[in-house]
Amino acid sequence: MADSIMFHEGNRRLQDQFDSRRISDRLEQFARKEFTPDDRAFIESAPYFFLATADAGGRPDCSFKGGMPGFVAVTGPSELAFPDYDGNGMFKSLGNILVNAGVGLLFIAMHGKPQRLRVNGTATVSRQDPLLARTVGAQLIVRVTARVIFPNCPRYIPDMQLMDPSIYAPRPGCDPPEPAWKGFDSFKDCVHPRQPTFKG
């Protein structure tokens, strides 16, 4: 199994039970370690993606990351970067990365032409990254080095309509409003201050 960048013994057990090892091997031929021009175009046009992480004990977590199209950038042949914006302060995903660098990213288009792209790799989190100074609204930068990049069948993606970007998504020349939850009685006495960020 050392020759597979995608499959381990658990995957293979189920593939063999369902006689899907041959198609799995064929699909693995489309996996890659470097981004194609189409990958870059899709990633850099995405207004959101999903980020899977796990803590040091392997307990998983999945989060939604959103921003204006272009908030995720392909920064090298096998590297992408995205900002961390002001949030609820729990740092579930980024805290996991500090103790377990393995991540999975799912880019998905549920509007227009359905499309999915998965990026699995290792991540770092930085407060000194050079991108920080030129990324509007960023308080940290996450860089991901891809171990494997592969498209995914979009057949179960619902046909949805993309309306407007979130009013909270950082953009040049615009101070996003504070979310309402920060003023709720349950939270307002313990809300952390918004970190100074690049305004653009």
Automatic annotation (TrEMBL):
Taxonomy, superkingdom: Bacteria
Transmembrane segments: none
Protein name in the entry: Pyridoxamine 5'-phosphate oxidase family protein
Domain Pyridoxamine 5'-phosphate oxidase N-terminal: 37-152
Organism expressing this protein natively: Bradyrhizobium sediminis
InterPro entries given in the database record: Pyridox_Oxase_N (IPR011576), Split_barrel_FMN-bd (IPR012349)
Listed Gene3D superfamilies: Electron Transport, Fmn-binding Protein, Chain A
Pfam families membership: PNPOx_N
Listed PANTHER family: FAD-BINDING, PUTATIVE (AFU_ORTHOLOGUE AFUA_6G07600)-RELATED
